[in-house]
Design brief:
Elements (H helix, E strand, L loop, with lengths): L2 E4 L7 H10 L8 E5 L1 H11 L7 E2 L13 E4 L15 H19 L5 E4 L4 H7 L6 H9 L7 E4 L4 E4 L9 H4 L2 H17 L7 E4 L14 H15 L4 E5 L4 H6 L6 E4 L2 H12 L5 E2 L7 E3 L16 H10 L26 E4 L11 E6 L2 E6 L5
Parallel strand pairs: 1-2, 1-5, 2-4, 3-4, 5-12, 7-10, 8-9, 8-10
Antiparallel strand pairs: 6-7, 6-13, 11-12, 14-15
Helix pairs in contact: 1-2, 1-11, 3-4, 3-5, 7-8
Length: 380
């Protein structure tokens, strides 16, 4: 199984983190396809103080069986001199998008079994592609997925699903509907069941303080969220709520009441999850029949330097469940894997996806005795 590793933002820690992965014998098991500009990877190695030596291939080489061992797919798309360290740039964003798309398409073609990337900078990516919002939508477009994407963050202790994600806080209340909450609960239950957690116990976080306090602090919890919970219960889903959001994670972690917490918006769950296990968390996208992992918000430009010491874990966890995406129920296009300690497992999952990025021509080729389609015209 190959790991397609896209080099992240040129102005951040992405290049040196990628270089550290390549240089570490415990992280680089001879199965990497590092994707990006060879000059940028060399610069990352210099900053990180490591030595790397990878055979270099081009996109044309993907039509033939790859050489044994790790390789560098040199896209020659980002001269380090053109990207100032610590600053957003269109050039850096364009390279990140192309690196990421290439990794995804390698996965879609069956050339890679895992897609991973080092930290991106969303601002740079939006400078290069105005329609870019987040990785979820981008994956939808690149792989031409059939349903809208959904993200799950997972720790050993608890899963976190959310009803809304990357939208302004002022739009959250209007975006939450009974149908949306009910569908999110159904998807969460399905995904967790497929991941080896039957009849998962889901606690639903309230939107308003004290779950609205009988209408004193808002009516959404009683009029929107509670009916969705009733629908979920009628479907046999093991769900409780709405639970005041200041205690729902306490009940999940300390009380052991819930296997998952469904939150209404991004930071309502992310603050708790990162406080519980920042060094263990991450993202994955299970619309492909393979894991797609990101580094869990390590993209801050101010963190220039040798990079965090999590580089080894970053790729090791990707290999830990290579079949996870294949355990999914076809209707949800999600994935799972064998549970770790307790009822959950590390990583994160997304399900669904829709959209089209391009109509580039494809070539048919064989790798390792399997049938693959490789998109040879990537331009993002």
């Amino acid at each position: 199984m190959r790991v397609a590793l896209a080099i992240g933002d040129a102005a951040g820690i992405g290049p040196e983190l990628a270089a550290k992965i390549v240089a570490d014998a415990q992280a680089n098991l001879g199965d990497l396809i590092v994707i990006g500009d060879a000059r940028l990877l060399a610069k990352g190695a210099q900053v990180a103080g490591v030595k790397i030596d990878l055979p270099v291939i081009s996109t044309a080489d993907l039509a033939r069986p790859l050489p044994a061992g790790s390789v560098l797919l040199d896209l020659r798309n980002c001269d380090p001199a053109s990207v100032p360290p610590g600053k957003s740039s269109e050039a850096g964003g364009r390279a990140s998008l192309q690196n990421f798309a290439t990794a995804l398409l390698l996965g879609k073609a069956g050339i890679a079994g895992v897609c991973a990337f080092t930290p991106f900078n969303k601002h740079s990516m939006r400078l290069a592609r105005a329609s870019y919002v987040d990785e979820i939508g981008f994956v939808d477009a690149v792989i031409e997925a059939e349903q809208s994407g959904r993200e799950f963050n997972v720790l050993d202790e608890v899963w976190n699903a959310r009803v809304t994600s990357h939208i302004p806080l002022r739009k959250v209340a209007a975006t939450i509907t009974t149908e949306r909450v009910a569908n999110s609960l159904k998807l969460t239950s399905d995904v967790m069941t497929a991941a080896g957690i039957p009849n998962p116990r889901i606690g639903v976080a309230a939107l308003n303080p004290h779950a609205g306090d009988g209408g004193n602090f808002g009516h959404e919890d009683d009029e929107v969220i509670a009916p969705a919970i009733d629908i979920a219960k009628s479907q046999g889903i093991n769900v409780t709520g709405p639970v005041p959001s200041d205690t729902v994670f306490v009940r999940a972690i300390k009380g052991g009441e819930f296997d998952a917490v469904m939150t209404m918006y991004h930071d309502q769950g992310q603050i708790a999850m990162k406080l519980i296990g920042f060094d263990r968390g991450g993202d994955a996208d299970r619309r492909l029949p393979l894991p797609d992992r990101d580094p869990g918000a390590w993209h801050r430009l101010r963190h220039r330097g040798p990079g965090p010491r999590r580089h080894r874990r970053h790729v090791q966890r990707h290999r830990s469940r290579p079949q996870a995406g294949r355990a999914a129920a076809p209707s949800a296009r999600h994935g799972g894997g064998p549970p770790a300690r307790g009822r959950g497992h590390r990583g994160a999952h997304r399900a669904g996806g829709s959209g089209r990025l391009s109509d580039a021509p494809t070539n048919r080729t064989k790798h390792s005795g399997r049938r693959h389609t490789w998109n040879s015209s990537i331009s993002h």
